[in-house]
Design goal:
Layout: H1 2-38, E1 52-56, E2 69-72, E3 78-81, E4 96-101, H2 111-115, E5 122-125, E6 130-132, E7 137-143, E8 156-163, E9 166-170, H3 181-187, E10 192-195, H4 210-218, E11 222-225, H5 233-239, E12 243-247, E13 249-252, E14 263-268
Parallel strand pairs: 3-4, 4-5, 9-10, 10-11, 11-14, 12-14
Antiparallel strand pairs: 1-2, 1-13, 2-3, 6-7, 7-8, 8-9
């Protein structure tokens, strides 16, 4: 009888030990998962600032960290412009109502990201469009990626967004030597402009100053540079003024703007999605 009781005790202890070991293993797995997730730097999905929020959201470690943006209305509606190496819905759902690309070059288009939203959102790439969402009025204007020839099928479009009293335009890779008066009339007065300054595919550099010439035509209150290198930084300060820097996002309203002089703002990018 004693032997039977002893054997039963051993079995019970073994079962308890096994359960304890399994629980410990799960805890370790959960901890490892939490540690991995803690290394991610994801875009903010909800805008609780009461103003317009602009986030640069390409993964920060790639070669084009300043092309892609989420623009959020003060009421929290999100649109995405020129997605590239962005997190798919299994990582984070940024809940866009529109995903738009100024043109179809690989650093302005992210099929994995866009396809992950199926048919739930408005999508277009390099087309002249006009539509409204709850908070945004959006339209696009034909432009040229390089040179001044604008054909029926444009090589780039300028996306204009009206939201919360602000007029925001993403110029994509507009590489003309100058905008036409017809383009300027369609674009209108711009408060915030995303514009490039160095891009060999647009024959735009710091010697011919095409980007700065186009900027002078548009004359926005704030310019957010997209394609550029560190060599452009002293030129920005010389030609535009002191560079303002924020990390990953900018919060802005119409009341924050001081018309009359263009300010330059770099939205630095530390996002990590893997």
């Amino acid at each position: 009888m004693k032997k039977v009781l002893f054997l039963c005790s051993l079995i019970v202890l073994g079962l308890l030990s096994g359960c304890g070991g399994k629980a410990k293993s799960n805890d370790k797995s959960s901890a490892e998962k939490q540690q991995a997730n803690s290394k991610l730097v994801l875009p903010e999905v909800e805008n609780k600032s009461g103003k317009v929020m602009i986030q640069t959201v390409t993964e920060g470690s790639n070669g084009f960290p300043y092309n892609s943006y989420i623009i959020s209305s003060s009421k929290g509606e999100n649109v995405v412009v020129d997605p590239f190496q962005m997190p798919t819905t299994d990582i984070v759902d940024v809940k866009p109502v529109a995903i738009m690309s100024t043109h179809d070059h690989v650093d302005h288009v992210d099929s994995d990201f866009t396809d992950s939203y199926g048919d739930k959102v408005k999508k277009f790439c390099r087309t002249v469009e006009a539509f409204k969402t709850r908070d945004f009025n959006i339209y696009s204007v034909a432009s040229a990626h390089d040179g001044d020839g604008i054909m029926g099928n444009p090589t780039n479009v300028i996306i204009v967004m009206e939201v919360d009293g602000l007029r925001i335009a993403h110029f994509g890779d507009s590489g003309q030597t100058k905008f036409t008066q017809e383009q300027l009339d369609k674009i209108g007065k711009i408060d915030i402009a995303f514009m490039q300054f160095e891009n060999s595919n647009s024959h735009m550099d710091l010697k011919n100053l095409k980007g700065f010439n186009l900027l002078a035509q548009v004359n926005p209150t704030i310019v957010i540079p997209t394609h550029y290198t560190d060599k452009a930084l002293p030129v920005f300060e010389q030609k535009i003024g002191k560079i303002e820097e924020v990390s990953n996002k900018m919060i802005v309203s119409k009341e924050d703007l001081t018309p009359g002089k263009t300010r330059i703002c770099r939205i630095l990018n530390t996002h990590t999605y893997a």
